[in-house]
Amino acid sequence: MRRRLLALVCVSASLLSGCGLISQDGGGERRTVTVWLMKDSASQDFLRRFTEEFERENPDLDLDIEIQSWTGIGDKVQTALRADGTDGPDVIEVGNTQVPQYAEGGRLQDLTLESMRDWGIRDWLPGLAEPGQWLSQQFGIPWYAANRVVIYRKDLFEQAGVTEPPRTREEWLTVSEKLDSGGDQGIYLAGQDWYTLSGFIWDEGGELATQEGGTWAGALDSEAALRGMDFYRELQALGEGPLDADEEHPPQAGVFARGRVAQIVAVPGLAQSIVRENPELEGKLGFFSVPGKEAGKPGAVFTGGSDLVVPKNTDEREGALAVVEALVGTKWNTDLARTMNYVPNKKSLAKAVADEEGVAAMAAGAAQGRATPGTPRWGAVEADNPIKEYMTKVLTGKDARSEARKASDRITELLDLDAR
Length: 420
Description:
Layout: H1 13-16, E1 31-38, H2 44-57, E2 61-68, H3 73-82, E3 91-95, H4 99-103, H5 112-117, H6 126-129, E4 133-134, E5 137-138, E6 141-147, E7 149-153, H7 154-159, H8 169-179, H9 194-203, E8 209-212, E9 215-218, H10 223-236, H11 252-258, E10 263-266, H12 270-277, E11 285-288, E12 301-309, H13 317-328, H14 330-340, H15 357-366, E13 369-370, H16 378-384, H17 386-395, H18 400-419
């Protein structure tokens, strides 16, 4: 809660300064910066430590951190951005791919200058930085990232005579084929895991959609995108993943925990769920970055995570910028990554999590991270998701080129319809 009511419990001038309404330099009433952060993005201990130090270093500011739920957050943020700003948030955590939909209409502060001058924009992870832009201006400031890696069974690798993780996509196919024998699945890859497919398409130089003259169009039918789908088809065949469902139907953590599955593609944190379901796998799980086409360079991956934005209607811009600068700066960003097993927001900070195998693999992959097309109307595509239907049709034997054209046309239609 805001601290304006503190004055009611201060009954004398001698108590006033102790109640925190007067800054330490006697400069007047303290100001409150309201920050909306999402549930489970940061631990309570992290938030406590950050708040204490921030308020100590900024004696004229109080932090009011309000935890939000992801459910229904889009409408709540849009309502806050349209309000008069008097009692609304001054800093908001948003999903990295959500920034364009909030920036459209001019409701966010343009933070391009601060990003270039003070916050190290050139070192940011591209999968967080790029979707934080709208019309060549930086509105979303990268906070933390998470992306998929390969979680594997060390014991099954050893039994198959595989002594080290594959370094390239071709090696990955060879290793997975070797593992796919004797009742073991080489890899469990659901037929509609379109996030993983996206990485293969990007590796080939393709895109999910492209923009020309301000108009977006589906691009799954490009030669590069078709090559990405062909690799997905080869890899997916080396296991028993369902052809007509995604990685959550059924949840792949349960499949991996209960069966003899050598590999899955998932965020490292899923390993904790796997071990909870099957404690016998404790100490038997390993991690490596999704391989790329060349040794020494991980493959492209979809980068999820959060950016911080500042509403245009804030009445505390200076304080909001101070909060953002602190949260995305080296000290607290590194602290958050270590506390929550995230990837830090800068490529140069990857070494800060190098001692944790899963996070280190994730950080290496994040350097090649990408995000979905930077249009505020991409949400309409994900809601309908013709990409999933396209994948199932190809995996069940339909002509890839023909189905890619249909899916691309549907993506174009959805982007155009939602723009009207």
